[in-house]
Amino acid sequence: MTALPTLEELEPLGALFTRTVPERYQDLNGHVNVRGHYDLHMDAAEESWERQVGLDQAFLDRTGQSSFSLTHHVQFHREILVGHEVSTHLRILARGPKTVHAVTIVANRTTGEIASTLEFVEAYVDLTTRRTAPFAPDVAERIDELLEQHAALPWSLPPSHRLGTTRPTE
Question: Which domain of life is it from (predicted)?
Answer without folding.
Answer: Bacteria
